[in-house]
Specification:
about 140 residues; Rossmann fold; four-stranded parallel β-sheet; 7 helices; globular
Length: about 140
Amino acid sequence: MKIVFVNPPLTWEERYTIKQQSGGNTPPIGLTCLAAVTRDKGHATHIIDAGVLQLTRAQTAERILALRPDVVGFTASTIAIDNVVEIMQKIKKAVPGLTMIVGGPHITAVPEESFKRYEILGLAVLGEGEATIIDLLDFFE
């Protein structure tokens, strides 16, 4: 299977409430761990770090769709969840049946509230996802 893991875009203003660069760009360690596990099991795996690439939400959706994945996995902090949902909506409009998974600190902290607030969320992984992602990919295959 082909899977794309996505670290959603966040502007400097969204991230730090300022309009110019400050702070840093920490690599998405959780996604790199997931990518290592899925690659080890033979899955074609890609990571899109939209913040580092300075992609908009629309550009992020376009990059994801261009890779023609079977599964898309998003990580979402609380400040990024609205951006993830918007990207998911764009993807669903283009490819209605594409499997999308959300993980990360936001969904882990408030899963019930997230599912009530965001109708598009259909599948989430709570906590560490290295074992779960393989089980899910095996199921989807």
